[in-house]
Amino acid sequence: MNYKRLIMPVLILSLIFCTPMYAFAANYSGTGTASLRLEYNGNQVAQGDGVTIHVVARDAADLYGVQFQVKYDASKLELKNANPQGNYKDFGGIRINHTEGTVLLPLLRSGASVTNSPTVAKLDFVARSTGNADISIEGVKAVTSESYINASGYKDLKELAIAAGGALTIGIASGPEPSPSPTPSVSPTPSVSPTPSPSPTPSVSPSPSVSPTPSVSPSPSVSPSPQSPTPSPSATAAPNVQQALQELEKNLASDNPSQALTQLTTLLANGTGKYSSAEMNQLEKLAGELQQKLQNSVKTTADSATGSMTLDQDSLMNAVQALEKLSELAASHKLDLPSGKEIHIRLADHAASELLVSSDQAKLLEGGKVSLVLENGQGAALISPDALSNDKQTLLQLTAAEEQSERQADKRLKFVSGLHLQISTMEDGEAVAANIAAGQVQLKLTYDAAGPKAHKLGVYVWNESAASWEYVREAKQNDGQFELAAGEPGIYAVMEFSANFKDTENVYAEALHAIEALSAKHYMNGTGEEEFSPGKDISRAECVALLVRILGLDSVLSGADSFKDVDADAWYAGEVNAAQKAGIVEGDGVDFNPNGKLTREEMAVMLVNSGLLKAAASTTDKFADDDSISDWAKDAIYLARANGLINGVGNNTLLPKSNANRADVAVILLRLIEHR
């Protein structure tokens, strides 16, 4: 029934965080006394042998959910795997502590039907050293699939009274040849007599209704040879790291991320100090591959009522918990994962596609701080869990936008690719547009990075009320995609901007490229509709305004500390004041000379004062006209040269006192942007 699927996340979390079972007010009354026992096949064990223990439920008519901990002697046994069996799943909740020798298993039966398999889990160990190894089960809590209405008026699951079976003691011999004793290893049977049964019986945990007498110690099936002393844990051979890494890689290749996560946990259990640099690099690489597997592991189905895609609850819960575990491992061991906690859902490439997220799924994602990433052929939208409704269904719609001919009013713009994002809540069967806060949606829009006009591309958002495209300056361009924070849902498009200046045909190639790029980024405008005036000298105010735009500094109103010759009403006042506040310009202490021509050495000082340069200046590689450089500008000029911003005008000369023209400034500013 539907309510059981809704209860599932609550049950798993309550098991993992040890919620007391008295939270379930009603008790289940079955036939007989239910117990959870450890069973072993009774074979004798030598050091290095594998040991398989089964966790078996007896007389448990309807064991729907169970949590228990198995404690083992970590000095003698190494836990390799812990896996649910039959219809039971762990949803990534198994927690292993190799140092303490414990494994916590929260299990939930898949489906409400009663399973026929009494085995709920299997533990695979390797015998590390000789001696008697004790294994016990403790902290058992369980519920049935039967529900009731609790005192608060909500549906709960009924508690199942279940007891833990007794401990097993496994004797580990010192060599591959077992001891001649035929007695199998069994868990102790409660009895007032220490005499063992004369005939071998299957190894099971004792009935929980009778406690073993403390004064009687059961004899193990195999005793260590007196000639073979038990080695200390430090003498135990270290595991084969390369073999373990290969097994992890194999599980990733076979699309088994759950087992791969268990293996990764085992590899990191005792820290990373024993691993070489190469092994750590491989481990980090495999952890990144595991993250990608988990991110893409959630299944989707079609909602019968709306036709929208929906998230499979079981695989979503499994992925969220596994990503949380992987994130904890990465943080603890300083592993650099390629991205954050995300669930990736692939949508249709060239059509509207919808994903319907339930309120319970929204809470699950929010609790794990896991974002949804919707992908199609033209990009992706990262939706923060904070953007999803906790009390209503959320409808996410992502359209791969086609040619925007009906919105192509500006002839300088040419559509390349785009996304149309809509976020709504479902109210009475109708989709109602939702409000999102800043930072809740991130967009990635793709383009051909190898195209000859990539430098002319930018991101624009359609302003419905103004019926125009607005440039999104904050979008970051990198390797075939733009990344940006979407302030609101809407249509976002990658556009090619062509200013089509008539007077730039004869400028040198690097200057033409820079003019086109800075025009497309809306940093540098022309001097007229079709003129750029590339050879025109640039003023000090014009250069400062360009730098302030590139640095993203906010305009500053004029005040008492402003330059005396900068009129508060001048078009450049806000930018010059911002540059003065940021330490980019100083003037002569009183005036700035905003309309004065900018010299090449003055421009170098402004570039260095922007704070974006890192490479150290060379003290030996000087310009041929070094003597003509002002002393106050020399350090800045050679620092700018070391960072590749200025190269001189040929023959290793700079001409520092010459005025900088608009074409040269465009080249240098684009170098600064690319350097950043």
Automatic annotation (TrEMBL):
Per its record, what are the GO molecular function terms?
carbohydrate binding
- Transit peptide recorded as keyword: no
What residue stretch is flagged as signal peptide? 1-25
GO BP annotations of the record are: polysaccharide catabolic process
Compositionally biased tracts (Pro residues): 177-232
Name of the protein: SLH domain-containing protein
Residue span(s) of domain SLH:
498-558, 559-621, 623-676
What ranges does the record give for the region Disordered, renumbered to this chain? Answer: 173-240
Gene3D superfamilies listed in its UniProt record = 2.60.40.680
Q: InterPro entries attached here? A: CBM2/CBM3_carb-bd_dom_sf, Cohesin_dom, SLH_dom
**Keywords recorded for this protein, A-Z:** Signal
